[in-house]
């Protein structure tokens, strides 16, 4: 005869098996046919092998006002595991159960692990694959989202929050990821507030899933996706790589990793990186890869506002956040999207004790009605505000152009940057030689026998006087003019000396960044 203990052991085994099946073999096979993994397969790939500990596998759905099947686990897998040995809490939505839709029990499971992550101080990762608020649960489903949003906001700046978008994410399912720090999106996933059918009904427009909210669109146009990956496996790998650059919480610094790259490694080819002709471009990535440990750099939002580059690397083993103008795209000009992209990145790094390194080659802010109407004043101010607010160690190297407001905004000494260097090729002035000469010598140019030759001569004179780093160095706005080949060594030594930086800002509830 079976004892109650044996009965319960058998029951537990059966319940676990049932929960692990999700929506059943048919739906799992449909998921696979779409090129997608199941919720549990994804978790296994995200965390270190054998490290996942699941919670609430036996929690069943609340049912809802409309008849809905009660399912164990309620369409979401939650728990914790390690990534490169460090704990993370996570959830993984199971599209095979009611489309991964979020009802009360589903949200209670997510909330529980979010609260644990904040309490323990670990990153939080969400693997999203959901049709949004569960329709059958009515207003309870909406409220359930609200509770998650509150926690996203409260956890912001306390623990890193990462979202992977791995299937359709509609309605409320997009707002939680949008408040997390980084969104990784698989190419065959979608994110939209209202789907193509609603678009058709309300504004009578036919639009495909891809054009409305596809990964490529979010990577290039909306800027919602920080990383776009071809499939689930690459997405989860990227999430692991990203976590490896970050501290577990805002009280810690990122883990050191020795890539065995000597800190005093010089690169003589950098002395020839900047072309002699100021209108000729070059690729800032050459400099970035040259100075990083092991030439490794994790670019964030690589396809969005490509005129500015942001991302993580290591220098002397320490994680740094890099912000660099890209002269090879729109001459590295600052426009609306570039300003917002860099501002958010700077704020992330500042929240999580990641020093900022800024490489400057910027001709100015993008002129024209499109940018002015789009709010370049508001958006440019965001970047300015973010740098001033940042108290982490800050280092700038002016590589070539640093003109006007853009000189100031790009982490200048005047915005409380700690240490500012320039290459001998730096040009620091109120504006470029042509614009400046045309303003100062307007009358003389008009009166000249050969206006073009006159302008060219004045531009030469201006370049000779202003387009160099020496005036700024004389005034102490630069701490040194350095040889390009020594850039890596100089930055790492500066990071080392700034390690003990202590600084505060006035006490207040919070500032009012020009959103
Ligand atoms: C309940 C849902 C659901 C939902 C999908 N399902 N979304 N069940 N609530 N929100 C169920 C479907 O009924 C179906 O069940 C199963 O999940 C798979 O869905 P399919 O439609 O067959 O899959 P697919 O063709 O891949 O389309 C996926 C989808 C589509 C694009 C996500 O299902 C869809 O448009 N869903 C509704 C999305 C939406 O409008 N959500 C907004 C909710 S309101 P069966 O049993 O038939 O297989 C909201 C507001 C929150 O979220 C606001 C906060 C700010």
Written account of the structure:
With about 525 residues, this protein is an alpha/beta fold. The chain folds into 3 domains: about 5-245, Alpha-Beta Complex (2-enoyl-CoA Hydratase, Chain A, domain 1), CATH 3.90.226.10; about 270-430 and about 470-500, 2-enoyl-CoA Hydratase, Chain A, domain 1; about 435-465, no CATH class. The chain has helices spanning about 5-20, 25-35, 40-45, 105-120, 140-155, 175-180, 195-205, 210-215, 215-220, 230-245, 285-290, 335-350, 370-375, 375-390, 405-410, 435-440, 440-445, 450-465, 470-475, 485-500; strands at about 55, 75-85, 85-95, 125-130, 160-170, 180-185, 190, 225-230, 295-300, 310-315, 320-325, 355-360, 395-405, 420, 425-430, 480. The strands form 2 sheets. Strands 1, 2, 3, 4, 5, 6, 7 and 8 form an 8-stranded mixed sheet that branches. Strands 9, 10, 11, 12, 13, 14, 15 and 16 form an 8-stranded mixed sheet that branches. Helix 6 links the parallel strand 5 and strand 6 (about 180-185). Helix 4 runs parallel beside helix 5 and helix 12 (about 335-350) packs parallel to helix 14. It is elongated and about 105 Å long. The structure holds hexanoyl-coenzyme A. Hexanoyl-coenzyme A binds near residues 98, 99, 133, 171 and 195. Hexanoyl-coenzyme A binds next to helix 5 and strand 5.
The secondary structure category is: alpha/beta
Distance, first to last CA: 70 Å
Strand content: 15-25%
Number of helices: 20
Structural domain count: 3
Overall geometry comes to: elongated
CATH domain topology of the largest domain:
2-enoyl-CoA Hydratase, Chain A, domain 1
Helicity level: 25-40%
Q: CATH top level of the largest domain?
A: Alpha Beta
Ligand types: hexanoyl-coenzyme A
Strand count, sense and barrel status of the largest sheet are: 8 strands, mixed
For the secondary structure, the number of strands is 16
Mean pLDDT: 94
Under the CATH scheme, the architecture of the largest domain is Alpha-Beta Complex
* Uncertain stretches of 5 or more adjacent residues: none
